[in-house]
Design a protein that fits this description.
The protein is an alpha/beta fold. The chain is built from 12 helices and 18 strands. The strands form 4 sheets. It has an 8-stranded mixed sheet with strand order 3-6-2-1-9-11-12-10, with helices on both faces. The protein binds adenosine-5'-diphosphate, aspartic acid and magnesium ion.
Length: 412
């Protein structure tokens, strides 16, 4: 029997009515002759609530207990979905991550899936079970503790199951009807894409488009999973939504495929560090050891043997970065005059594989921002993206202006 993976995100299972609607979609796929693996998220808002409880009790918490707590939202929806399907006379059973078991690394709160044994679930399909409902976002470490895969991790659970079971497709049901040229909440001109290349989706996701977790796109690309994003709120045909696929499958595309943004950025500047060989290592090794995810880096012009070093990191890691730098200063590894944190910044990025063969895309982006009076604080580029750090208050304006200037509302 072909296996199909269907993932329902938080808003798609937010109420009993929505779980029933999702279960009906699953019933349609079962009626077509598929064995279905359903991956569920926690009901909308549940994970945030659980994270809030953890932080209230213990801001610098034990990550193992964080995982034990925040993974629990998915357990509820998995059981509710299995029960709903049983009520519809569809043979279904729920699994928590450890029961499969979804084996992960021990990196609590951002674990990576290492292995998903298929025998257990396949045996049940062999006995007539039609739907395996699996709690997304969670797994088990080699030490036998519950782990979670990072926020948005149910997408990754879904793709990993699709790869392990060689599924015909992995359908990600969410509250939008596909991947858009930018977040449709920021501009009504955002256009739904029928197809997007893995590389572009990977960049968009890692630069802030939370419609798919970055790791899920990485896995889909590596294991050639047919990945589709579609709405759980509308009746869907077989070619609905957006297909994330290999570049070769896309006939025509714009130079810029989409605009992504991230609000949760901070710009940190170390004022007056010694400009000597090894200074970058002396700064960034302790930051990395402290678990700070440094993104952009700029070293300013040096004057009289001293320079300023600027880097960006997620806002919730600012405290950790400050502590790491103060410790490095106290131990004499580095010396700086001051560490200035600017937490009112946002990152805006344009992404497109067409940039490989088109010159002048970055220049056009900078001109658009100049015309809007938006000051650029830091720039980074790669082969298929340009990112800028700007004042957060201009973020929406910048996204809309870039969307207009690159005519993303029109097809190529
Ligand atoms: P789920 O709970 O189903 O996992 P998410 O909230 O994680 O859903 O992701 C869906 C949201 O992603 C949309 O509501 C939309 O606001 C946001 N989003 C950001 N960028 C994009 C984009 N380029 N295309 C579509 N949605 C996007
Ligand atoms: N419930 C988790 C979260 O909110 C995982 C997910 O929804 O993908 O991050
Ligand atoms: Mg999500």
């Amino acid at each position: 029997m072909p296996v199909l993976v269907m993932k329902f995100g938080g808003t798609s299972v937010a109420t009993i009515d929505r779980i029933k609607r999702a279960a009906k979609r699953v019933g349609v796929e079962v009626a077509k002759g598929n064995d279905v693996i359903v991956i569920v998220s926690a009901m909308a808002g549940e994970t945030n609530k659980l994270v809030g409880f953890v932080n209230e009790i213990s801001p610098l918490h034990d990550a193992r207990e964080y995982d034990a707590i925040v993974s629990s939202g998915e357990n509820v929806t998995a059981g509710l979905m299995a029960l709903t399907l049983q009520e519809m006379d569809v043979p279904a059973r729920s699994w928590q991550g450890w029961q499969v078991p979804v084996m992960t690394t021990s990196a609590h709160s951002s674990a990576r899936i290492e292995e998903i044994p298929t025998d257990n679930i396949l045996a049940k399909f062999g006995e007539g079970m039609k739907v395996a409902v699996v709690a997304g976002f969670q797994g088990a470490s080699p030490e036998g503790r519950i782990t979670t895969l990072g926020r948005g991790g149910s997408d990754t659970t879904a793709v990993a199951f699709a790869a392990a079971f060689e599924a015909i497709r992995c359908d990600i049901y969410t509250d939008v009807d596909g991947v858009y040229t930018t977040d449709p909440r920021v501009t009504s001109k955002a256009r739904k894409l029928d197809k997007i290349a893995f590389e572009e989706m990977l960049e968009l996701a890692s630069l802030g488009a939370k419609v798919l977790q970055t790791r899920s796109v990485e896995l889909a690309m590596r294991y050639k999973v047919r990945l589709r994003v579609l709405s759980s709120f509308e009746e869907q045909s077989d070619d609905a939504g957006t297909l994330v696929c290999a570049e070769e499958e896309i006939m025509e595309s714009n130079v810029v495929a989409g605009v992504a943004f991230s609000r949760d950025e901070a710009k940190m500047t170390l004022i007056s560090v010694a400009d000597r060989p090894g200074i970058a290592a002396a700064i960034f090794v302790p930051l990395s050891e402290a678990g700070v995810n440094v993104d952009m880096i700029v070293q300013n012009i040096s004057e009289e043997g001293r320079t300023d070093m600027t880097f960006s990191c997620p806002t919730d890691q600012v405290k950790r970065a400050q502590m790491a730098m103060e410790d490095a200063k106290a131990s004499g590894e580095i010396n700086f005059h001051d560490l200035v944190a600017d937490t009112d910044v946002a990152k805006v990025s344009i992404v497109g594989i067409g940039m490989r063969s088109h010159a002048g895309v970055a220049a056009k982006m900078f001109s658009v921002l100049r015309d809007e009076g938006v000051n650029i604080k830091v720039i980074t580029t790669s082969e298929i993206k340009v990112s800028v750090l700007i004042d957060r208050k201009y973020m929406e304006l910048a996204v809309q202006a870039l969307h207009d200037a690159f005519e993303l509302d029109k097809t190529a």
